[in-house]
Structures are given as structure tokens and as C-alpha cells.
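sorry for the late reply, my laptop died twice this morning and i had to redo everyting from scratch. anyway the thing you sent over, i finally got around to it. pasting the sequence first so we're on the same page, its 230 residues, then the predicted structure underneath. double check i copied it right bc i was rushing
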Amino acid sequence: MKTFQSLLSAVAIVGIVHVEAFQPSAGQCRFASNVARAPATSALSSTETDEETTAAAVVPSIEPKEAVKLFGRLAEKYIMLDDSGGMCCYSACKDCEYRLPDGGYKMADQSASRPKWIPTYEQRKFENLGKEHEAKWRTSIYSDDVTAVTQDEFVAAILEMDFATPLGGPFVSKSAGKMEDTAAAAVLFDVLADGSEKLARRKMSRRLQELSDGEQGLTWPNFSAALGVE
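ok and here's the structure:
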């Protein structure tokens, strides 16, 4: 009998030792708990950040005809170029100082059948030729008292300008030239203001020169490219 009881006691002791041997330590419990509670949000946070970045980079898409409606308000049929051009006799003289590298002539001014250029200058005067021209954008958007405008003022002035079917871009008749969507005008302001809240008259002239690659007038190809129109 005593032998049987001794055997039972031995089994009980072994069982207790066995259970205690597999009890996790306090450090293991904390590690397991931390792993269980570790947030699995890093991928989601990255996705949200990418979406926010993409949304911030979105630029309004401008329809080509809407860009034409804008260009047709700012462009002109006449532009003044180089006052030395009027000094040429246009007789194809050899080594003429008034000839261009490609063989063409320096012109004092040019005219087109339809609006073709947005002059990059505010005002130009060739006293030796008795010619003077003030850009339409200068007189329509600015005045002697107003030398800088906000985006709202810029857009409002554009809407007041008359539209004429220009050279370049898809055809838009004069009767269809009404601007109901002002997105193109707002984007043009942003392009010209280049981060500023107001667009100064002199800065507009300088930015037009930059966008025209140094030419005296901004034509449709460069104008549409500046607005991101394809």
C-alpha cells in the first residue's frame, strides 16, 4: 500500500515539474503581447501618403478649345519686332546687317489675317519709324493705377476681353467663343504668377518672354504647351 502511495506522489511531482518547465517567462509574455498589439498600418499609411501626394499634383485638364478661347482674347494681329528692320532696303544685298542667319530679313513689325501673337512687351515705340503699339493685355488687365492683379481680378479681366478666332489650335468661331469655364484663365494666371499671389504687370511681360523662348510674341504652340494642352 505504501509503495502504491509513493508511486502516486512521484507521478504528481513529475507532473508539476513538467508544467512549470513550460510556463513562459514574464519577458516572453510581454514580447508576445507586444507582437499581438503591433499595429499593421505602415502599408496603409504609405498608401494614404501616396494618394495625398498624387491628389496635390493633379493639374486641371484643359480642353484645347477652351485654351483657344483664352488665346483668342489675348492674341493680336499686329506685333512690333525690331526697329532696325525698317532700315533695310530689302534688295538682298550681300552681307546685309539687317538680314537674319537663315537668310530672312529683320522686320520692324508684322501683321496677320487673324490674331497670332501675344506681345511679350507692354508697350513699344519706334520713333525713327513713327510707329507705336501697346499690348492689348496691358490695357485690358492693367491700368496706370493697377499694376498688379490677383487671380480673381485676372480672370474677371479676361472674361471682359473680346474674342476673335486666332491662328492656331482647333477652330472656334467668334460666336462660339464665349468663356463659361474659367479654369484655363486660372491656370494661365498660375503659370504667369509663378507662385505669387499677385501678378505684376512687369512680371507678366517677363514671363511671356520666357514662355516664348525669346521671341517678341507668344504664339499658339508655346502658349498651349504652357497650359499643358495636348
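Residues 2-21 form the longest helix (20 residues).
thats about all i looked at so far, will dig more tmrw
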